[in-house]
Specification:
single chain, five-stranded mixed β-sheet, four-stranded mixed β-sheet, 6 helices
């Protein structure tokens, strides 16, 4: 069987390409695919313990079975479900300031709104920078974001969630993330916003690179 392997973030540099097709025997697992890839690209083996794996848009394990035509994604560690139709989720290359103006107004059921802005600082890992470059496994990121929103709705009674994450190069002082939670009560809004911000760094495949 043939599968497509995609590389993300700095793993693309290690493999020297964005994707390739490999042939495996029927019944092969992701571990079998990794062994073949490590033989072809020995530098990838050095990152094996921290590499995340996905089949399609779902995370997978080394023992997950592969099928003909699968897309296997190899990703570095992440940094850090469907909600109601009123939720808004956007991965964009545009300025969040410009997008935010189109998000509409509150309704009479909303009693508490918590808004978090993630801003690019001038220091990253103790060193001065001019910008951060964000890249993503876009299809999987949107899928995992929606699963996260669905889980958030299960935990708290919310009216609406809005999440905007910038991709591309974002300069110091610019916004890279907006999380806005609307609820009947402020306590639920605060708790849900904190949960989303913490969880997205663990579950959503978006990476950042410092630009000196």
């Amino acid at each position: 069987m043939k599968i497509t392997v995609q590389f993300f973030s700095f793993l693309r540099q290690l493999a020297g390409q964005n994707e390739l097709t490999i042939t495996l025997p029927d019944g092969a697992t992701t571990a079998d695919a990794l062994r073949q890839l490590h033989a072809q690209f020995p530098q990838l083996k050095e990152t094996e313990k921290t590499t995340l794996i996905a089949i399609g848009v779902e995370f997978a394990t080394r023992s997950s079975q592969l099928r003909d035509g699968d897309v296997l994604s190899l990703m570095p560690p992440l940094q850090g479900g469907s909600g109601p139709s009123t939720d808004e989720l956007l991965l964009t290359d545009e300025s969040i300031d410009e997008v935010e103006a189109t998000l509409g107004k509150f309704n009479g059921e909303v009693g508490g709104v918590v808004t978090f802005w993630g801003i690019v600082r001038q220091i990253e890992d103790g060193k001065p920078i001019r910008a951060l470059e964000y890249t993503a496994h876009r299809e999987m990121a949107e899928h995992q974001f929606r699963k996260l929103l669905a889980e958030t709705h299960q935990r708290w009674r919310l009216k609406r969630i809005r999440v905007i994450h910038r991709l591309g190069t974002i300069g110091v002082g610019e916004a890279s993330l907006l999380v806005r939670v609307e609820a009947a009560h402020r306590g639920e809004a605060f708790a849900a916003a904190q949960f989303i911000i913490d969880e997205l760094k663990q579950k959503v495949p978006i990476w950042k690179k410092a630009m000196p």
